[in-house]
Amino acid sequence: QKEIDSRSVYVGNVDYKATPEELDEFFRTIGSINRVTILYDRFTGYPKGYAYVEFESKDSVEPAIELSGTEFKNRQISVVAKRTNLPGFRRGRGGFRGGRGGRGRGRGRGGFRGRGGFRGGRGGFR
Known about the structure:
The chain is an alpha+beta fold.
C-alpha cells in the first residue's frame, strides 16, 4: 500500500460531474496512469468532490503536484501527495491551507455548496 501511495496524488475540489476518464486525460500529459478513483459518499451515492490518481511511476507525483491551483472543468483543483494514513492526512491538509483546520476547505467547498452551510448550522445546535 505504501508503495502505491508513493505513486499517488490526492486531487481536491474536483467537479462533481467529472469522470475518471476526464481526470485520466488531464493527468496523462504527466505520465502513465494505473488508476483514477473518484470518491463517492456512501450514503447519498454522490461524488465527494475529490479523487486519487495513481501513476505508474512515482516520478510523476512531483509534476502532478505542480498542477495544483490550475483549472479542471472550471474549478481550481488542489493536488497533494497521497499519504498512507488518512486521518492524519486530513489534519495535515487543514494546516496546509493556513491553519483553518477542516473548516474552509476540509469537507466540501466551504459555503459554496450547501454542505458547508449545513456544517455551520449544525454548530448552532450545540
